[in-house]
Every structure is written in structure tokens, then in C-alpha cells.
Amino acid sequence: MMARKNTGRASPFLLVLLAFGFFCATYNLLTLVMHKASRIASEEFYDPIVKRPNGGRRENSPKFHIALTASDSPYSKWQCRIMFYWYKTMKDMPGSDMGGFTRVLHSGNPDSLMDEIPTVVVDPLPEGLDRGYIVLNRPWAFVQWLEKATIEEEYILMAEPDHIFVNPLPNLAHGDHPAAFPFFYIKPVEHEKIIRKYYPEEKGPMNNVDPIGNSPVIIKKSMLEKIAPTWMNVSLRMKDDPETDKAFGWVLEMYGYAVASALHGVSHILRKDFMLQPPWDKEVGKKFIIHYTYGCDFNMKGELTYGKVGEWRFDKRSYLRAPPPRNLSLPPPGVPESVVRLVELVNEATANIPGWEDSSP
Hints:
alpha/beta; seven-stranded mixed beta sheet; three-stranded mixed beta sheet; 9 helices; 12 strands
């Protein structure tokens, strides 16, 4: 009987051992949770490559040159005029590292904006090579511009016509690490089978291919000079491959840049604060660029009706053949601040750009 009682009772040593083990497990769990929470909280303040405060401008940051690729269509021209207006407004504000500005016009011929916006004319791709995908002219335009232009700045911002500077933009790049905006729909890992056609396994793991496009990107001029020809060739190869063309569609050229960068061993600092995209991003905050690529459709209650033309709407595609008129109506109450700000910025630009009414419908 005594033997049974002894075997059924835990010894003090065993209790201490169990308590210590429980403490260790609890401590490790709490540490893991706290580390995870700290990591999530810090994502808004630190980038994943260079541990540098988000929005914390370095003293004596090198300036960057803004390069805006564009066609000579009315649709492209009115967007370029608004973009250039806000560049001039923000360029010399505190916190800005903006340098010179060039519209890289890939039509092959001068147009009516030559005297309004600093422009370099380059050739389009040979007829038929883009297969109706005009964006393929972008990498070819950069190849030509980098060869023929004199660019004083060490860095270049690759921008697009539907960008509006909403806050002064500092140089977000850091040394040989360019800065880029991560797009949620660029998913190299999910397209590994296709990406491996252009980025073979011996080049490295799939996560070397950043989830980005070429714009917005701030990058050293010397690095872009190496990447641009590869970007052009990879994009043309992708367009020529039916499987890749079908999978990537209108973002094919973005994947082309991401792959070309990886082939050159270039990793980007991913900055979510680089850009916002109404109506999905609701607040402007301290972000730097508004990208108005999505249509903004709302009913008069301020409710989003995406996919259905709203009672109130702003969509750049409504103005394919002529620019929007001055003094667009503001959205109804309840619409996100980012959409309201976008319309206000467009209205301010069109009110102050000379001759805007001459090109209106």
C-alpha cells in the first residue's frame, strides 16, 4: 500500500520541473506573439531591406530626376499637364528631393506640349511589335532616353501620367537599393511556372523577384541603364509567349521590370507609403503620390458602386478623347477623403493651367 501511495504522488522535484517547463513554454509563446505584434506595428515605420524610418528624410539626400513616359494621345496629354502642375507645386517644398523633369514622349514626333513640359522625343517600337499593347513602348523609351539625354541627377523616378504628387516626395531610395511601391496584384511566387521561363532556378529563389512594376520606382541612373535593355527584351519575350501574355495581360510589362531587376541582382525597398490608389485607399495621410487608375463610382449616399456606373463618378477613362472640364463636381458626403482630395487636386490644376479650356470638349 505504501508503494502505491508513493508512486501516485508527484515529487517536489517533478513539480518544479513541470512548472519551469510551463514557464519556458509560456515565455516563448509570449515572446513570439510580442515579436509578431512588434513586427506588424513596425511595418508602417521601417522597410524590409534598409532599416530606415518611413518618411524620415535623410539630410543631404541626393535629388532625383522625374521621368514621365507618355504618348501623344489627348488622354495622355491632359494627365501629363496635371501631373506636371503638381510637380512644379511640390518641387521646392520642404522635404522634397525632386530635381529636374522630363516627359519621355514615345510617339516619334513633337506635339503641342513641347513648350509647356520639358520633353524628349523618342521613337515608338517598330509597327506591329507591340501587338496593340502600347505599354511595351515604355522600356524601349527609357533605353533611348538614357542613351541620348544628359541627366544631372544621380537618381531617377519613373512615373506615369496618372500620378499626382500629393505631398513633397523625398528620395526614398537608399544607396544601391531602389525604392518601389508593392502592388497587391503582382504575385511572382504564384506564377512561378511562368516566371521561371525568364528567371531560371540557378538565378535564385522566387522571392528575389519583387512584387512591383517599374513605376513608381526611384533608382540610381547607373542601375537603370543596365536594367532597361533587359526589361525591354524580357517584356518583348513575354508578349511573344501566348501563355505568359494570357496570364499577365495588361500588367505584363510590370512583370517584365520585376524579372529584369532580379536578373541584375537588384532588390527594392518596398514602400507602401509611396502611393495610394483611390477609392480603395481611403486616406491620404503622409503618402506621396495619388494614382488614379481605378474608377470612382458612388451613389448619392456616398456608397461605392464599383463595377456599376455611379450617380457620381470620376474615371479617367471618361476622358479618352478630350480632357475633363474645369470645376468637376465634388463627391457626395460619405465618400473617402482620398477621392475628395483627388477631385480637388484635379480642379485646382485645371483652374490654373493656362489654356485648359482651349482643349476641353
